[in-house]
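ESCALATION

Customer reports they have been waiting on this structure for their group meeting. Please prioritize. Original submission:
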Amino acid sequence: MGTIDSKMKAYFDVLLDSVNDAVTGVDRDGTVLYWNNVAERIYGIQKDQIVGKKIGEFFQKGSVMLFQVMESGCPVHQVYHNPRPDKHVFINAVPIYDKDGELIGAIAIEQDITHTVKLSEELYSKPDDRIHAHSDYPLVNRNSSMQQVIQLLTQTSEQPYSFLLTGETGVGKETLAKMTHHAGKRSGPFLSISCDSIPSGLLDSELFGYDGKAFGGNQEERPGKFELAIDGTLYLKNIHVLPLSTQSKLAQTLSEGQFYRIGGTLPLPLRCHIVASSTANLEEMVSKGLFLKELYYAFHSLSVPALRERKEDLPELCHLFLSESAQVIGKSAPRLTSEVMAALTTYHWPGNLPQLRNIMEHLAIVSNGAQITLDTLPPAIRLVTLADLAEGSLPLPTLSEEMERSKIEDALKRTRGNKASAARLLGISRGSLYYKMKQYGL
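Update from on-call: job pushed to the front of the queue and completed.
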């Protein structure tokens, strides 16, 4: 690090203190070179207490991991660690090389997830009454983005606004549509139509209905979803699959507030609240001419965050789904350990809420009411803990002087003074052992 001039070091120090994670930098001997403000706050150890000292004097398992990273040259990612009873972190560590490719040390970056883990623990004794329970998926909204979506939908629920909810499959778009319907206190029904489940040739009649006179004069008139949902809400799922001709009719309906049955000539008033959803990138589809801009801009668009973007909501969702599943099978709801909650937090949840519910159902069954541990989780969700990486004896360079002297004395006793055997036991050269013995007066 001596090659870094004072100006560059100043930039580097500011950078380290500007990030939201704890950062520790060590040289190849395990001596702490950098310790940022977040690390001070998480561990209560000031810079002047730890910089210049060996990392193993403060964190033995953490020092083992850093030495393993330096020895192997392979970084580690998302390693869970519980360094203190009240702290839970994810660690990423990488080796550092100079311009000549020479190893000079390693950096560890720790993300504090204590809040999420503690929230999970608190839920066992403090049930939350803020959950909307009228839909398929509870609208837990500790996440700020989800709060904004729910707040806007709730505030405008009694207004004649048409909303377009975008987001991945399984993020709860239909649940939000139902919430809007209930919040608006509408007297009519909530009806849903999946635009991708009906042949395109039948979509128009499903939506707009048809006039029997247009089909020979003897057929009965058939109302469409717009009429059946009078004074209620019509939810149009996956609106992006609508043919352009149907998109044009729908855009005209929203613009004019009226529609025509297929074959009919009498305009009918649009008297239902419209909420649509899409899993596609509609702006991109508009630019490619696959989705009409007139229809796109007829809606107020809201983006619903994916589950991996709202990790603050995971503890409550897990507990709710676990309790629900345990009740169905007649078992008591199992507890989640801190390690399990950490694993659920770091997983990316590609299947969103349905996948989470299925996993909780699985855990409720296989746990049989007992506490859920990492071994209980499906393999794809399990994580690596720092205890896993740090198994075995601690490398001698990671230890404080007092611990190092004690370990050397122990090795010499176990080998009855045989210095070659003691050196092998300690994992150092015989020359290094002679030097250490002289250093400590052994």
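Sent to customer with the following note: The radius of gyration is 31 Å.
Escalation resolved.
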